[in-house]
Design a protein that fits this description.
This protein is an alpha/beta fold and 291 residues long. It has a single domain (11-275), classed as TIM Barrel, CATH 3.20.20.70. It has helices at residues 46-59, 78-91, 104-108, 112-120, 135-140, 147-159, 178-192, 209-216, 224-236, 265-278; strands at 17-20, 22-23, 42-43, 65-69, 97-102, 123-131, 163-170, 196-201, 244-247, 258-261.
Length: 291
């Protein structure tokens, strides 16, 4: 297997075989994201993809999960994805699922029939970065999609059989818009009612536009306890209709939580209140945090 540049995957794909089918992100303009600044977007030659699948078949034939990288590999056309999915299903007899990152426009550009075809070939979980339910925040961070587009995309994917994991970003709105961001994010999640919902905490990384904005004083990152308050408001405003698995287990977070919404909503809020009452001593120390 060969990898080019920075390669990331969601925490739940820790034990998956990561297969690069594209390099970078087709948008790659979010002010906060440093991940793919080291490479321009490019669809990987299919011959190389097939070669890596064949190598993986020999090295780890019992593979059960595969994750297709990079940033929004669902931007590939259905015609490009189908041969890759077929090759994976053939190479790994015990394959259970294939995961992928997507932007809202990637999902909306495909027909229901195309999405069903992909889902039937075990591409069954999509990870999408909502980041914020506030269009004002999304525009400020140059997300490239509105909250309404992302809600529509998640609903569309789930209606044809995908499990969707939605990601929100604590601290992204700075100190001026944090409450609007938190309320709107909770409401967006409520409208989506995704299978999975996770919160990460924004890390201001040198080389990003957000870092420049921080240096200029136009972006001020909330303090750790303020971000816990933000998390509380998000959960408080989340009202999903079906069981949603909620996690904050990413290394960037100050407080790791896990539960099911709406069942565990009160317990989660109480845990946050307890952490707030204890102060920063209850939080993950800075040296243990990471992207």
């Amino acid at each position: 297997m060969r990898y080019y540049g920075t390669v990331i995957r969601p925490p739940s794909e820790a034990n998956s075989y990561i297969l690069q089918v594209a390099y970078g992100c087709s948008h790659n303009k979010c002010t906060f994201c440093p991940t793919y600044l080291d490479k321009p977007f490019k669809i990987r030659p299919i011959k190389q993809v097939f070669e890596d699948i064949d190598t993986a078949r020999k090295v780890m034939p019992e593979t059960r999960r595969v994750f297709l990288a990079d940033g929004n590999a669902l931007v590939l056309t259905t015609k490009q994805l189908i041969p890759i999915l077929d090759a994976l299903n053939k190479a790994f007899p015990q394959l259970q699922r294939i995961g992928i990152y997507a932007n809202a426009k990637d999902i909306l550009a495909k027909t229901n029939q195309e999405l069903m075809e992909l889902c039937n070939k075990k591409l069954s979980i999509i990870y999408i970065g909502l980041e914020s339910g506030s269009n004002k925040v999304l525009k400020r961070v140059n997300k490239g999609a509105t909250a309404e587009e992302m809600i529509k995309a998640v609903i569309k994917a789930q209606e044809v059989g995908f499990k969707v994991s939605v990601i929100g970003l604590l601290g992204l709105a700075g100190i001026d818009l944090w409450k609007k961001h938190a309320i709107a994010t909770g409401r967006a999640i409520s409208a989506m009612s995704p299978r999975f919902f996770s919160l990460l905490t924004v890390m201001v990384v040198p080389g990003t536009v957000l870092h420049e904005q921080q240096k200029q004083g136009t972006f001020i990152l909330p303090a750790p306890l303020e971000m816990l308050k933000e998390m509380r408001v998000i959960i408080e405003n989340t009202d999903v209709h079906s069981g949603c698995i909620f996690r904050t287990n990413h290394a960037s977070n100050y407080l790791a939580l896990e539960g099911r919404l709406p069942k565990d909503k009160e317990r989660l809020l109480q845990t946050i209140d307890s952490a707030l009452s204890q102060g920063e001593s209850s939080l993950r120390p800075e040296y243990l945090r990471g992207l």
